[in-house]
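Example 9 (inverse folding). The structure is encoded as follows.
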């Protein structure tokens, strides 16, 4: 795949760290990578944004950000309140397509979930993915409630005829509860797509060299890694009755 759109089941589910892991694995394989953040919210002009964090963790990647809004709100709301022009799905798709000319892989990281609005017309990351004909990687939380949001996202993608490449658990806890462990079996069922990884909670705090060395162990071969979904699930659920 040349362009991969990365969204989440909501905010704070580990999208940026997952994006960094995908980028790190691709860079380690010798691929040229670009990371596009269409709309960065809640960050001042002098602060590091999500795309900058991906570059810090993953290494030599091209970083592009189309708009930045100071308030931590949905992009359309943040744009309206700031007076800064909004981003439109067509802008994102055009930029991603241009980056794809010179890069082996372009990662487009959204803000929040799939249907968070970019503009007052209701444009979303789902529209961008459809314009690009690009698959979507869904980053989900581990615990209770994730099955509902994962299935809703999967169904919306299906309605729009956008491919769901798979699901990555963006922050796998060190001591997973019962719901999290059961969700290893249930997530691919409700998504109708494979489980492609589980990123351990807190790895964004690793030194970049350690993050890059370990990233392949968090992602399945479909994302260039060595993580085995069946083996991981067997280990994590071994003590379940």
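The amino acid assigned to each position is listed next.
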């Amino acid at each position: 795949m040349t362009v991969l759109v990365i969204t989440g089941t909501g905010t704070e589910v580990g999208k940026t760290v997952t994006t960094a892991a995908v980028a790190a694995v691709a860079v380690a394989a010798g691929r040229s990578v670009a990371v596009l953040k269409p709309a960065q919210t809640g960050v001042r002009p002098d602060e590091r944004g999500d795309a900058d964090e991906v570059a810090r963790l993953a290494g030599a990647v091209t970083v592009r950000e189309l708009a930045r809004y100071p308030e931590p709100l949905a992009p359309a709301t943040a744009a309206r309140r700031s007076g800064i022009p909004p981003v439109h799905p067509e802008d994102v798709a055009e930029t991603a397509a241009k980056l794809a000319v010179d890069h082996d892989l372009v990662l487009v990281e959204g803000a929040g979930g799939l249907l968070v609005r970019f503009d007052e017309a209701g444009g979303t990351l789902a529209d961008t993915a459809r314009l690009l004909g690009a698959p979507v990687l869904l980053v989900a939380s581990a615990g209770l409630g994730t099955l509902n949001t994962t299935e809703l996202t999967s169904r919306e993608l299906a309605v729009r005829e956008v491919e769901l490449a798979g699901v990555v658990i963006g922050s796998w806890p060190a001591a997973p509860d019962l719901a999290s462990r059961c969700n290893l079996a249930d997530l691919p069922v409700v998504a109708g797509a494979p489980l492609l990884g589980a990123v351990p909670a807190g790895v964004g705090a690793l030194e970049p060299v350690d993050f890059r060395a370990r990233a392949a162990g968090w992602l399945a071969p479909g994302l260039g890694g060595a993580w085995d979904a069946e083996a991981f699930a067997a280990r994590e659920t071994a003590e379940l009755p």
